[in-house]
Amino acid sequence: MASLRLLLAKPWIWSFIGALLVWLATITFTGGYGGGGMITAALSLAVFTVIVGVGQMFVITLGPGNVDLSLPANIGLASAVAMKVMDGNDSMIAVGLLAALACGMAIGAANYLLIWALRIPPIIATLSASFIIQSIDISYGRGLQIKPPPGFASFTNWQILGIPVLAILTVLFSIGAAIALQRMIYGRSVLAIGQNIRAAWLAGVNVGRIRFLTYTLSGALGGLDGALLAGYFRGANVDIGNEYLLASIAVVVIGGTSVAGGKANVPGVWGAALFLVLLLTMLNTFGVSAGVRLLLTGLIIVGVITAAGGQTALR
Amino acid sequence: MTAAPVETGPKSSSERGALARARLLRGLLPAMSLVLVLLAIAWLNPRAISYFGFSLMLNLAVPIALATIAQMFVIAGNELDLSIGTFVGFVGCVTATWLKDTPLVGVLILLGSIGVYALLGALIHLRNLPSIVVTLGMSFVWQGLAILILPKPGGKAPDWLLSLMAFKPPLVPFPIIAALLIAAVVYFGLMRTSYGVILRGSGGNAAVLERAGWSLLKTKIVLFALAGLFGVLSGMALIGITTSADANIGNGYTLLSIAGVILGGGEFVGGRVSPIGAVIGALTLALAASPLLTFMHIPPDWQVAANGAILIIVLAARVLISRRER
Known about the structure:
By secondary structure, chain A is mainly α. Chain A has one domain: ABC transporter involved in vitamin B12 uptake, BtuC. Chain A contains 14 helices and two strands. Chain A has a two-stranded antiparallel ribbon. By secondary structure, chain B is mainly α. Chain B has 15 helices and no strands. At the A-B interface, helix 5, helix 6, helix 12 and helix 14 of A face helix 7, helix 13 and helix 15 of B. Chain A: Keywords: Cell membrane, Membrane, Transmembrane, Transmembrane helix. Chain A: One of its GO terms (molecular function) is transmembrane transporter activity.
């Protein structure tokens, strides 16, 4: 009983409960049919949200005003870079992934450069950067629909006993991210900066370096996500990352990370990502039209945020 | 983040003079960027600087300016509206369908949507929610509603709206008159009335305002309702120009409106905004985005990048000036 109460006190547990409820509602509707397949599909789609969500989580944890709005443009460009470098050739997969990572890291570093050099709020810096990245992507990837190498495409769709391998790898990555957040100097520094940037600085935290690393990390994860998305959806395109702006911020907030910064958790990102993906699956199963689906998604996100409440405004 | 500049004792008169000059320079920055863009256009294509040229180039400036003003009200209260673009699209769809066919229902829907904006303001204040998450969620709601109203591009603008937007006054092109009018009205409302000061104060120092007995709930509701009102005007103006609607028609306006406010000298926090600057910022963006690039033979691919680049250049210039302000 005590352990149950302890579990319920965790901020991330609610996202998993939400995901479970949505799943139960859907299989009740289908009469128990397709419950397993739904979880498989949800896991493979949630992976992409989790990867950018973790990056966004580190950024948001830095404190009020920190958010990476350049993720969608970043994902779009990295997907094009990865597909162009791989060029449909299995032997180039590793090089393509590295290129996408490098592209994302460069974008993250450029974001921080703008924040640091122009002393502007990260929202505006990442927004301006995203304008430019978007144009580079349109110009670079014009009419580009290069297929991923067959090996890469099947890797991103590879399943063992109904569990996507990519999801297993992402769980391992999340465990690593959780350790980095709670047990490593880097993560503790991020939390310290989010709680009180001045106190962190006085305590000897190299604030500039940690912020630089965090934006670069977020960029790198966006780049990686772009490459994986292009593999999973069999091709890169400019709009491939569009939905990940809302998704990356929403999973962080729904997952129980404080939007005021200084308090974060990784499991919640998983719970919230599964919740969002299952929600879409449920609405599709109910056969609602695109308009109703968007409407309900928006209302549910606003509802969840309202119920979860906020401590201090993000800005 | 919102640390106020610390006053360090009395300043000598020369220092104060330098400070005033820096402030003036900073205030003139939006106008200077507009003049720079105009000069570039005049140099590249002198024929564009004419009644007809301006009417054409500034065609879409009116809805952009209105959306920028809407965003400015939200930013004045230290919030951010990421749904204004899809809201403009939603209003466009209502304008091209309900407002034309059954004007009464159309008007009621638009008034209701302003009410929704006011409620959002209340919700954000009462539950202390992050506005960017709430408005990101709302952007899906507006888009969903727009698609439900108009699944395929179509509809038609009401005739009175068409003739209003096609109005050709003598000497000065309509978009310029409209921009001046918008700037003047909002300037007097927000900068010259006593409640305008309270509204800006809610972004400047909410704690002091509350202690002085003003309702922060009310200021937030008013700011969001005004944003909704100008969003509605923006959507209607847009449909008056394009004549028909599309659920995605306003999507670009979210980013344009934020960029316009910042270009116009607005600050992200602290209630420091400028209606005149915001309108100038919107005009600069409208001109720089397509006409200037077309004259420079830059492909449309780079239109969005031009917006980003202008934003960065202006912010860099502002940093240089602020350094002197210190």
